[in-house]
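User: Study the chain.
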Amino acid sequence: MKKGILICAFATCGKSYLAKKYSNVIDLESSNYKYINNQTNTISVDERKGTTRQLNKNWPLNYYKAIEENLYKYDIILVQLEPEHFDYFDKHKIKYSIAYPNINNWLEVEKRCIKRKNGKDFIMKLKEVFLPYYEDALSRKYEKLYILDDNMTLEDCLIRDNIYLKSSPLNSEFSWGS
């Protein structure tokens, strides 16, 4: 089987949306690997972000193992953009691309966070790392850099680049923010 494309995307680029809409895409939501989520299962993943949770003792190796396993199961593997992950990918010669909102587009990022019900603490943390993570990402050994201008999503970038997205038969009617 062909190896999939690994894309490290900043928050609000549309990772979850893509994975719900297309059957050949998976969003490996990092918090499912980073934390023990047994006490917060009644709220959505987005609402959990920024809350206090117990760290999983297997983090981050459990996440990297899941990424590597899914590279041969999906055409596109979407993961959170974190500098520590780039270090691992570079060390283990795992090719990746980066998706990032235009650096002048913080207000769109914030609007998307609010729409998906992220907490204020999470939004503030995101704002603090918005520029430093971007600068760090530019210095990495990525294959492709997708910059999302205005209200673009990662889906828009992939379609523009003729990346094959296989529609899921269960999700034929989809809208952004679902």
Notes: Residues 120-138 form the longest helix (19 residues). The CA atoms of residues 27 and 78 lie 5 Å apart. The first strand starts at residue 5 and ends at 9. The two ends are 31 Å apart (CA to CA).
